[in-house]
Each structure stands twice: as C-alpha cells, then as structure tokens.
C-alpha cells in the first residue's frame, strides 16, 4: 500500500493553475526528495498532499484513504520551513515539542507520562534535550529547525513531510537533523521532503522528484551535486531565509479539524 498517492493533480491559487497533471506515489519506508527551482511548485505540492491547498483536479490518497475522508492526521508529521521568530508566544523548547503530541492525545486531555517521554525522546534524537526549558527564541535558526523536527517526531508519525528543512541552517544542525531523519527512516518511517540542496541528507534519499514549472520533469536517483552549490560550506541564501510572520505553523490536523 502506498503512503502517498497523487493522481493527475492540478492545483492553483485564485484561479491560476500552479501544478499541472502531477502524479506521484510514495511507498511505505521510502525517502523522497522533491527538488526544483524557486517557484516551481514544490511547496504547493506538499501543501496539497497535506490538504492545506485544495485540489482543482485529480485525486490524493493517504495511507490508502481518499484525502477528503482521511482523519488519521496523527500519522502525519509536518515540519514547516521556520518556527517564526515573531510569533509573540514565549514558549519553551519543551512546550513547542509537546504541542506535537496534541493530535495524539486530544486537546482536552492533560499530558501524561507517555507524552513527556515522547517529548524527551524526540529532543534527545535531535540533540537538544539540554535546551528543553529554554525559550525557543534563545535558539539559533538551526536549533529552532531541529525543535520543529522534534515536534513532528514527538507525535510518532508514520509519514514525515518537511519543507526545506535545512535551508539556511548551520552545518552542525544539518548533521543532527540528518541523523534524526536517518533514525526515523531506519525505523521504517516514510519521508517526503522539499529541498534546494540535499547536503548531508543526500545519503538518505531513495528517490528524487524534480518539479519544473508545475510538472514533474524527472524522477530517479538524486542528481549529483554540481559546482559550488555542492560545497559543504556553501552559504545558500534565498527567500526562505526570511522567517514567515505567521509564527508557529499549525499542524495540518488542527487546520483540518477547524474546517
Ligand atoms: N498562497 C499563495 N497564493 C498565491 N500564489 C501562491 C501562493 N503560494 C505560492 N504561490 C505561487 O505558486 C507558485 C509556486 O510556489 P511554491 O511555493 O509552490 O514554489 P516552490 O517550488 O516551493 O518555490 P520556493 O523554492 O521558492 O519555495 C509561485 O508562483 C508562487 O508565487
């Protein structure tokens, strides 16, 4: 059974079609990277998989269930691009990670020992357990990004969807990030991630899907790194380095429940 199945999907915003006739299948345990230039539609593709952008045409299934009927969002962990510095919520690292347990336990049940253990385990996996009581605002961008993956891991998902997890992130955090993802994949987890450059994530990738102008232009082994972009110390700066103003991204489960 496939974890994600996209068939002939067309997606757009305000009547302008961005993705044209996209078909993509991700099998259980696969690690798939979605690559492509700025504006090619990578984020739109994963946002439509998560149900955050409505489909114009086509079908999407998650774990064999039509997305419109799918309710088991606790099985899906989403790591957005940035935590957002300006959220105005003075949360600690532990609190942010604990919010990843909400879909598992429901909002009105107090957190229990299993929740606390999952939070500690996830923070240990990303190398931030010693920062559990620190305000997230005191963390570097890379550490904040690691907090987001811990938040997703704490929910014990079967599928992790990550949007440019390592863009603008320091090398140490990228390595810690890759190690945490490697453990998740090693335990049978499925990963779909958007990336500009794979860097230390490269050895984890089973398949690369290159999106070009809203269509899948290539699928197969990840392309070889080329030119200075491939250097480990290449400092890639692009629009994603600017934190979004929206603050902590709401988990897809929360959004869908609100509809
Ligand atoms: N909420 C939105 N409303 C209207 N247009 C949007 C919206 N989000 C994205 N777009 C447009 O859709 C196109 C694809 O954007 P998308 O973010 O999916 O590309 P991307 O490949 O992820 O690019 P990047 O690498 O810059 O994130 C762009 O032309 C963008 O301007």
UniProtKB/TrEMBL annotation:
The keyword RNA-binding does not apply. Residues 218-244 are annotated as: Disordered. Coiled coil: none annotated. Residues 226-238 have a biased composition (Basic and acidic residues). SUPFAM superfamilies: P-loop containing nucleoside triphosphate hydrolases. This is Zinc transport system ATP-binding protein. PROSITE patterns: ABC_TRANSPORTER_2. Its EC number is 3.6.3.-. The lineage of its organism: Bacteria, Bacillati, Actinomycetota, Actinomycetes, Micromonosporales. InterPro entries: AAA+_ATPase (IPR003593), ABC_transporter-like_ATP-bd (IPR003439), Metal_Ion_Import_ABC (IPR050153), P-loop_NTPase (IPR027417).
């Amino acid at each position: 059974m496939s974890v994600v199945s996209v068939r002939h999907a067309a997606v757009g915003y305000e009547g302008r079609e961005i993705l044209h006739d996209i078909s993509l299948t991700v099998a259980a345990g696969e690690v798939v990277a979605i690559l492509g230039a700025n504006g090619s539609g990578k984020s739109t593709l994963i946002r439509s998989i998560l149900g955050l952008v409505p489909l114009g045409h086509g079908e999407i299934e998650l774990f064999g269930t039509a997305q419109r009927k799918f309710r088991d969002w606790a099985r899906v962990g989403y790591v957005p691009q940035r935590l957002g510095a300006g959220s105005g919520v003075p949360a600690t690292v532990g609190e942010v990670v604990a919010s990843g347990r909400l879909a598992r336990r429901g909002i009105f049940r107090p957190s229990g020992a299993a929740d606390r253990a999952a939070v500690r385990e996830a923070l240990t996996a990303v190398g931030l357990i010693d920062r559990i009581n620190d305000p997230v605002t005191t963390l570097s961008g890379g550490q904040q990004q690691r907090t987001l993956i811990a938040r997703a891991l704490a929910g014990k998902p079967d599928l992790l969807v990550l949007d440019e997890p390592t863009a603008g992130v320091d090398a140490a955090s990228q390595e810690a990030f890759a190690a945490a993802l490697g453990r998740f994949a090693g335990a049978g987890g499925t990963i779909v991630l958007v990336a500009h450059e794979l860097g230390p994530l490269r050895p984890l990738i089973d398949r690369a899907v290159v999106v070009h102008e809203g269509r899948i232009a290539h699928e197969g082994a990840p392309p070889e790194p080329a030119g200075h972009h491939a250097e480990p110390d290449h400092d890639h700066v692009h629009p994603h380095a600017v934190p979004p103003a929206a603050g902590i991204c709401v988990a897809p489960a929360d959004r869908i429940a609100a509809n």
